[in-house]
Amino acid sequence: MALHELFSHPVERGYRAGLCSKAALFLLLATALTYIPPLLVAFRSHGFWLKRSSYEEQPTVRFQHQVLLVALLGPEHAHGGFLAWSTFPAFNRLQGDHLRVPLVSTREEDRNQDGKMDVLHFKLELPLRSTEHVLGVQLILTFSYQLHRMSTFMMQSMAFLQASFAVPGSQLYVNGDLRLQQRQPLSYRGLDVRYNVSVINSSSPFARDYDLTHIVAAYQERNVTTILTNPNPIWLVGRAAEAPFVINAVIRYPVEVISYLPGFWEMIKFAWVQYVSILLIFLWVFERIKRFVFQNQVVTTVPVTAGSQGEPYKEHLS
Amino acid sequence: MFASLLSLLQVLFLMIPEGVQPQPSPSPSGAVPTHLNVGPRTQGGTLQSSSEGTETPWAVPGTSTVGPNVVTPSAPGNGTVDVFPVLPICVCDLTPGTCDINCCCDKDCYLLHPRTVFSFCLPGSVRSSSWVCVDNSLIFRSNSPFPSRVFMDSNGIKQFCVHVNNSKLNYFQKLQKVNATNFQALATEFGGESFTSTFQTPSPPPFYRAGDPILTYFPKWSIISLLRQPAGVGAGGLCAESNPAGFLESESTTCARFFENLTDSCTLEPALNAASYYNFTVLKVPRGVSDLQNTKFQVPVTLVSQAGPPLLAGNTCQNVVSKVVYEIETNGTFGIQKVSVSFEQTNLTVKPSTSLQQHFIIRFRAFQQNTAAALSGPRSGNPGYIVGKPLLALSGGIKHSMTLLQSQGDGTCSVKRHEVQFGVNAISGCKLRLERVDCSRLQQKIYQTLDGGPRPEHVAIFGNADPAQKEEWTRILSRNCNVSARHCTSCCVIPVSLEIQILWAYIGLQSNPQAHVLRTRFLYQCQSMQDSQQETEVSLTTVVTFVDVTQKPEPPRGQPRVDWKLPFDFFFPFKVAFSRVDSQKGSVSPILTLCLLLLGVLNLETK
């Protein structure tokens, strides 16, 4: 009857030598070479410390129902070229004859019923005299923008829309995304309300606070902003005399990839993963080298079998 | 580089089995030697093979820089060999009787060695074959199964070349037989999308189906046409005259017309003339096309109100059609039973360039429908409100939709008002010129302007509310401003803005929620003004705000809320894997993974 190997276990073997012997020096050297080079390899191959990371989140965006509209009129209009309106009373007061109150209707829609708004339908009908022709439009809509997953980030942001054409228009159609623009990463935790200030200072009575260049300049100073990405606004022409100029906008709030600064433990975790995976190779290689050196007595040692120390083998209990 | 490595490998492969006997290779042509002849080749033999066509072996970079194709040794004494490279079809010989440049197979060129004259040979003018070459001295014996041969390159170095398998050298073999029966089948099987001519003349169906164009007949000219509903088209929004109306599709369209010279167009332009909208008969069913003399299949268009033709009186063009409303009664497959039309007309002043906006409305209803029910107006939802439908209000027992102010082109208040749409927040405003009347009259007038007539008292809870059922309506909370002027006695407190706040919520099944209005509030904001002032303008604002106060039920277990920061994605891969199992039955991989994982854990335990 043939015999099969049913079970096996390694036999431990000790090698003895003095602390100041060649063998001890070799061991010290081998240990150092095992543990330090993986660290250097991991570090020099870049990306050892995770300095930036990113995550996905759909922001909680709400339209703040603040609108600032400037409609640029054709040159034949003797009245000085523009009509304006906003939801800010002070701005409206400043406009005088240029004020023209439009009909604005908005609707925010939560398509997947997850509690976060997904899209804003915005429609503005600006009544015009038959002699007035709109050649360009500047429109600011403001939003409150919040992120929750990593750090709680709150800001008040805006979507700025500017479109102009050489031909008098009847309608402007825009269908775009409200995208987050980051100039610097967010924090991984905590509350961030740096930019939770209104884009347009609605309490100010001064004209310069409603100046578009001033508003845009102050807004662009921020490191985190939102922009309206609409590759091509559609400008429709051919307005009947009594018809209003219509701005039709569909603004979506898409899922954003947000970059953030990883926290301490996240950094350590990724470094550890890299280090250990390289270390395993070094451990295996140096184990082989050490075994070769000691088995073949390259350095002088006194071999001691584990069996001579009493127990034939140690049972590993778990 | 890669190619040269490949060829080196090939060389190695050829060199290694030196001791092995050369195997007989299945060479397709007998002229190609399978066994490498290291000794000098007879000129005739090479010529023999070259007479099959000019071979163009591609030289392997690194091993041989110049292709050995230059070596087509001439045999001055051998007259039997055709000096022209023989190709059965010379694809580049396009001008008969003339030598085509760079066409190496053109017999009109009478060139012994076309390459000496031409800078290159056009593709297709030389026989294509793929040769991979190495220096001949590297090869001792070839046992490659592929045909091989030795060439001499321009430097006089012998090159050993192997003819490699190349799928490009295959022929198109299978030819389809096409006849009348399988033509269409082949065209559909192999054809993709292509341009098609859409001109089709189908036979008229026995009756109209929803969306079918409605046929009309002009008895005066015996012309069949379609019932038209002009609609704005393109960037200009100009009226597209021939836009057909769809059967049973009640629709309303608006479009603009521009007139360069209204003096002429006023009377000549048919679009401005009411008569052109009813001087035809409508076919009850499309089948009526076959028998146009039979009036049984035709319905005349009846006029609800008299509409005169356009009239040029001085500087105005009178009786211009601005709105056309068709009312069509239908009766199932019996088709159209009655068509009536009504007009709205306006006057246009003649200017160099005049524009006009026209409205076209087509309404369908069932024949002999209960007119009382039809009078009550359309629902805004059944039962729950639909977003975008008008918000229903009740004032004095009459149902109407709630409205907001609207301004005219010059910013003053318009008689036309904007309908409040359910779920759509809106703001509007206009300027109102005040006459000098006493304060209470003034207030009354402004309140009326803000409210749009008598103030609505109730608002419908659901979109299908019946004015007769009082419990289906909820009272609007409203309060006028404090009338008493505060500081001055000569002041008049007038309202300047109205905010309509509507609290609404979803009710019913979460999968089929129905929106209903909980309560509505009218909020007026007032301003005091000097009573003694002259005629002034006051700017009025109306705002409507919809607030969703739906209390969402607790989300099902395991679904996180928006504001949670708990590590709810801890078991993310498992969740994803198992949710995928749910969606596509029969996938066992996640279960298998889990089992393996469990097994692994158990193994660790027992070690």
Automatic annotation (TrEMBL), chain A:
It is found in: Cell projection, Cilium membrane. One of its GO terms (cellular component) is ciliary transition zone. It is a multi-pass membrane protein. The chain crosses the membrane at residues 23-43, 267-286. GO terms for biological process: camera-type eye development; cilium assembly; embryonic digit morphogenesis; in utero embryonic development; neuroepithelial cell differentiation; regulation of protein localization; smoothened signaling pathway; vasculature development. Keywords: Cell membrane, Cell projection, Cilium, Cilium biogenesis/degradation, Glycoprotein, Membrane, Transmembrane, Transmembrane helix. It holds the Pfam family TM231. It comes from the Eukaryota. Its main location: membrane. Part of the tectonic-like complex (also named B9 complex). Interacts with TMEM107. Belongs to the TMEM231 family. Transmembrane component of the tectonic-like complex, a complex localized at the transition zone of primary cilia and acting as a barrier that prevents diffusion of transmembrane proteins between the cilia and plasma membranes. Required for ciliogenesis and sonic hedgehog/SHH signaling. This is Transmembrane protein 231. It comes from Sus scrofa.
TrEMBL record, chain B:
Transmembrane segments: none annotated. One of its GO terms (biological process) is smoothened signaling pathway. Keywords: Cilium biogenesis/degradation, Glycoprotein, Signal. Residues 23-69 are annotated as: Disordered. Residues 1-22 form the signal peptide. Residues 43-54 have a biased composition (Polar residues). GO terms for cellular component: nucleus. Residues 207-366, 380-549 form the Tectonic-1-3 domain. Part of the tectonic-like complex (also named B9 complex). Belongs to the tectonic family. This is Tectonic family member 3. It comes from Sus scrofa.
